[in-house]
Amino acid sequence: VWSPLGLNLRMAISLSNQIRVPSSQPNNKLNACDIPADLLKIGVFEWVSTRPKDLTVKFYYRTKKLVWELLCGAMKKKIVIRWSQISAINVFLDENKTSRLEIE
Hints:
With 104 residues, this protein is mainly β. The protein is built from 1 helix and 8 strands, in the order αββββββββ. Strands 1-4-5-6 form a 4-stranded antiparallel beta sheet, with no helix packed on it. The protein is globular. 7% of the residues are buried. This is TRF2/HOY1 PH-like domain-containing protein. InterPro entries: TRF2_HOY1_PH.
């Protein structure tokens, strides 16, 4: 399935609805999409959100980047991933439990 991210993805309808962008909008008019997260795990590194908005993943359509934002007190740290660096995205959604986004 083609997505507004410009990647070939298989995703559940609920996540697709969160990142949907009207196809009539030109690419330079697309806004970012923010999705709150509870946990970021990269290898042995783990960041657990303790407050709302401590951890957010953002999809930037115009610049074709995925950005993880981690709030550390008053400081904000970012992990920036260009879409060209992504080889796969898996989304596991459960309406009654925590969902999972895996990026390779």
